[in-house]
Specification:
CATH topology of the largest domain in chain A: Rossmann fold
CATH class of the largest domain in chain B: Alpha Beta
Helix content of chain B: 25-40%
CATH architecture of the largest domain in chain B: 3-Layer(aba) Sandwich
Bound molecules: adenosine-5'-triphosphate, magnesium ion
Number of helices of chain A: 16
Oligomer: heterodimer
CATH class of the largest domain in chain A: Alpha Beta
Radius of gyration of chain A: 28 Å
Shape of chain B: elongated
Number of domains of chain B: 3
Amino acid sequence: MENLGRIIKVSGPLVVAENMTGSKMYDVVFVSENMLMGEIIEISHDRASIQVYEETGGVGVGEPVYRTDMPLTAELGPGLIQSIYDGIQRPLDIIYSRAGDFITRGIMVPALSREKKWVFNSLVKVNEHVEYGDFLGYVDETTLIKHYIMVPEGVSGEIIEIYQGEFTVEETIAKIKTSSNIIDIKMLQKWPVRKHRPYFKKINSDIPLLTGYRVIDTFFPIAKGGTACIPGPFGSGKTVLQQQFARWIDANVIVYIGCGERGNEMTDVLMEFPELKDPKSGEPLMKRTVLIANTSNMPVAAREASVYTGITIAEYFRDMGYSVALMADSTSRWAEAMREISGRLEEMPGDEGYPAYLGARLASFYERAGIVKCLSKKQDITGALTIIGAVSPPGGDLSDPVVQATLRVAKVFWSLEANLAYSRHFPAISWLNSYSLYNDAVKEYFDKNIHEDFFSQKSEAMTLLEREAELEEIVRLVGIESLSGAERIILLAARMIREDFLQQNAYHEFDKYTIIEKQYIMLKIIIHFYKQAIEYLNIGVDINKIEKMQIKEAIARMKNMDDKNMDKIKSINDKIDIEFEELRTKEEI
Amino acid sequence: MLKEYRSITNIYGPLLIVEGVENVKYEELVEVEISEGILRNGRVLEVEGDKALVQIFEGTRGIDTEKSRVRFLGRGIQMYLSPDILGKVFTGLGKPRTESDRILPEKKLDINGSPINPFARDYPNEFIQTGISSIDGLNTLVRGQKLPVFTGAGLPHNKIAAQIARQSTVLGKKEEFSVVFIAIGITFEESEYFINDFRKTGALQRSVLVLNLADDPAIERIATPRVGLTCAEYLAFEKDMHVLVILTDMTNYCEALKEISAARKEVPGRRGYPGYMYTDLASIYERAGRIKGKKGSITQIPILTMPEDDKTHPVPDLTGYITEGQIILSRSLHKKKISPPIDALPSLSRLKDKGIGKNKTREDHADLFNQLYAAYARGKEVQELAVILGEAALTDTDKLYYKFAEDFEVQYVSQGDYENRSIDYTLDLGWKLLSIFPREELKRISDEFLVKYLPDLISEDAAQTT
Ligand SMILES: Nc1ncnc2c1ncn2[C@@H]1O[C@H](COP(=O)(O)OP(=O)(O)OP(=O)(O)O)[C@@H](O)[C@H]1O
Ligand SMILES: [Mg+2]
């Protein structure tokens, strides 16, 4: 074959080949007789630099490079849900059944089963005119997901045949007559992962995406279709948060990317999700989940691809009108993969050796989030894609280039802090340094659906926390004695907010998820306690007595109460009043 | 016949360039013959055109451009294996250390191994009782976990590692751990300390020792952990054994990595360590765990010295990002004569939640450790306050926390080198220490357990209500 490339250099995951004239950037190639998959990332004259998605040990100069003249694509169609893929969308379960416990090289397995038959239900009729993005029909992929089959890009015309029944993803389910020819439509479609999938238009997101985390939903909410980042040092709780989101977040489809992280963390999800039930439908969580696992010991270049594979799958479900949440843990490993390849290409290094295009790559990734009006003009379909990325800065140092580049594009910043994690304040989200730029956008939703004082209540609580930080400074310098009674009550209330509201145990049956109504009530009770305390202090009740009130224990236990017992929780409010009255009577004021 | 080259053109640091080569493969094993019978081993770091960049494990001293002959062996570095490796000692490159360490191999494996398919993994969830309260109670180790010890120069990390190796058991199971001990650039004395301890307890017959000592070639350390882990994988996944791997000291490993990177003139990452160190370390640490359908397991205890006791130094930092928690030793506790000086607050076992609770340790374990941690954290804060303001300035409640933190260090953290505490003992000790607090301070423990395990308090409460 004269069209073969020939390897002239092997340096880790980077291979350079000559005789590559005519190949295009980002084309997929296969390297050596082992058929190791790679992607062209630089071209110079007849030479192409290739990042290889598998280990290159044993590859040498002179070996062939096979071209495909096709970009790296994701396979889209029924069978995605409940899958676990590596970074280049090879199903790890199938690899396991073929190759055993360890991943060997050069295995080629299609992402979607070619044998499995799906029941296709048509939604269009013969002679109907259809265009790119219109729904042709659907497959009930799982009990939770109706998988719509859409008219692929570049096709518009009349339906001349539409089928109904059981098909594999490669069988024709419809024929469309376009202006030039007749096209067979199959359920399997391919999409180049580095290209974002188009939509009709983006719209503003003003609905919160509820997570069940009190510190998030109440103080630093994320909007549907929004972007958030979670930077934090090791062990601060990024993965626990991401996995909790994957479990309980209010989305239809979850795409979870384990990018350069631990194998056991993926196993954890794999073993647990089929058992855990989605609270709304009672169905196993796995039935709405797609997993991408390119763990830290798997080839580095494929880490880079994993992020793109994941987001393409996420966009695909968004285009069906679903609310999709994508979790990427951790984007730092993706950036490091970029750095490694860039170093081997001997590109000019930027900050900390990261390539100059780091910021641009991150930005265009987060830009793929949003609420969109989908392409179809027939149906009014809105889909949402929310992106939550973990960032792992060295030493937890936020001046890290990946953190900084991410902060420029992500709209929510949940800052995880080591000192909080050490004192087992989980989630270790700093209430003083975090922010959400969606606060204004989602206000109306909370006003309407929860209570019109939801926002004023939370800013009251935040003020208490800020005051606490100032007062603690004073205590540190001159001791608690120097504080007035009112100031000590601020400390008392702020501590309640921290310990009884912000802290949340991911492993507790009821505490792990708090519905927004309960969040509101909990905070209301604490603020009520604070106001009463100030009032009774002013009429002369002893501060030391207030600090020792019994009711504190009931307040502390609110979070562990089942939200089905909302009345019981609400009744704490009255108990606060009763105990204060008792205090007053005892002191004969 | 292997082709031989006499075409070394450049030698710098641990690296050399050989020109005019054909068919050389990346990562291939290389042999350099300096003079009759004197061999050095290396591996190919990069091939370009007819040039190969080779890293020499034993150092380049004595290699020249005229006489030295280079052979490329057409394969990676392999470890020869059979069940007889138990009780044997190997060099950092996996060769028998003495004649008596020679075995009849049943199998050869490439020391780089292959990544475990995440789908093939089984989640580690079996509690290992180490008999050390601050580990069992607060940073519970489970079978298949990788839990490093972050230490500082002069701290007693070896004692702790030896104690873990000596005392570790899985409750209700008979199997004993096999030990793979991997010495990376540590002194002869340190290594003897372990070997003697293994000998005394009879663990030596169940151990494989892979030793690269301080005066052994530094670059060989790149291979040493991989040699040991190849043994561990063989024993665990082919011979059904539960293997405890001790790697010490990973900081020396990273130094070797840095040396090669510097010689290659790569753009350095933080503090001169290469940018790919995370990935490289992961290829070592991720070789721990359990596999579905396999009886054996690999539990890793890497030990690493934090330069200047700095946890944010790249070696501990990147390790912490890969391992499933960390045990951190503290110099200030060591000065206070708390032994083992385990700093409970920044230490963490991430897999503990799967290994504790009913039927594993005890139902109250999770609540108890949450409370102990919180109380100790507050106690330490209060102690700091007291340093500035004097103890008298503390509130009554804070005084309790102050006392708690002291008692906790002396009674709970501190224990004898040969004291093997049962998990029940450890848990009960926790309750005893917490019993100085009034009940409303014990917010993290559910009522049910307070009633069951804190009998004193209930009677007090009952007395109040009647
Ligand atoms: N919300 C929570 N509730 C209870 N425990 C938590 C919570 N979040 C974190 N933890 C504890 O902290 C540990 C570390 O959390 P996690 O693994 O998420 O850290 P991480 O930030 O992802 O670290 P790395 O960067 O190393 O991956 C967990 O194993 C758990 O013990
Ligand atoms: Mg993590």
